[in-house]
Every structure is written in structure tokens, then in C-alpha cells.
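Dear colleagues,

As part of the handover before I leave the project, I'm documenting each prediction I ran so the next person doesn't have to rerun anything. This entry is a single chain, and its sequence is reproduced below.
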Amino acid sequence: MSYEDFTEVYERSLQELRTQLTSLNLSEDKVESLLAPTLEVLNKELEALSPTFNAWLNYSKSCDGHSKHQVSGALNYFSGELIKQKQLINADWPNNQELTNTINKVIQDIDKSCLLELNIPNKYMRSTILLPLVTAWLSSQPSHIALYTDTYDDQRDVMRLIRLKNFRKELSHQKIAIYEVTKFAPSWYQYSYEVAFSWFSYCHNNNK
């Protein structure tokens, strides 16, 4: 979905809303006055979203293709928006130390060329912001040697697969802590997971 597609949906929805208000037999001036406050807010949001849509959602059309810097920037933007939103309501962030320890171990196993660079202003936010990245990376990794590399090193790849199995096992024992994170910001989590999974799958396929 491009920014142009997004604005087209926005304009169509706006027209449908105008039609519904018109059916209430209100004057045109009254309809516009009712819409004005909402339109002002939405237009500002569209203006703020424009660079993100252009830079991220259209990135696949760029001759540069996938860029770690670009993907990291998109995730940092939306994490930043999440932080602002939660700070406004003084939200208590999920902060399970056992989950954080597991996340730290997984992060250390991700190849540096694929590891996304995320800005985390406070330690207590670490498990929340990094969880979708970690689960996406584990999901993108094969569980069978034959799928791992074209020319694999038997000992190296066996050890790597054992580590992946252990990471997955550790996370499976922390379902409550994971649920608390996903419940904390479900839409943000799903978006971050999908973006990270797409990146790790691309990075794995182009670096194996």
C-alpha cells in the first residue's frame, strides 16, 4: 500500500461520511462545520505520515532495495510514537527480567549484518521493544539443516540449530510475559513483527 493508496482510501471514506451527513438534511455549511475539527486532525496526521509512507511502504520500489538503515528507521519511528503515547497516560511497561535475559541471548546470536538498530531510551522498555524483533528472527530461521545453507558446516550448523531450539524452548516457558507485551500494544507489536520478519527473511536469503 503506497501513500497515494492510503490518501485515496482516506478521501473515499471522507466522501462517504459527507454523504451520510447530507442524508440528515443538514446544510452544506453545517456539514463542513461538523467535519472541520476532525479534518484538521486527520490532515495533520496525514502530513506526519507522508514521509514514513514514502520512505518505508514504497521502499521496495526503490533501486536500492532493502536497507537495514531504512528498516531500522521505520521501526524506530513507530516505537517512538508508541513511547509518546504510553508516556501520555503514564503506562506501566511490561518488564520481566527473565524474558529480558532470553531476549538478550537471542540478540547476541543474530548476525551483525542483519541485526536491526533500535533506539531504546530506557532499560525497562527493552523487552517490549525487542520482543517482536526476536520472535520475528526466530520465525525466519530454519529448523532443519538441509534448509539452512547450500554448503553447510556440519558441526557449526548443528550447534546453531541447537541454540535456536533452546531459544524457542526458553520463550515457550515465558508465555505469560510475552502475552503481557503483546497485550500492551497489540497493533504496534503485530506491525513490528511483520516488518522485522520480512527483513530477516530477506537478509537470510541473501546472505546464506
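Residues 1-64 form one domain. Residues 66 and 133 are 17 Å apart (CA to CA).

All the best with the project,
I.
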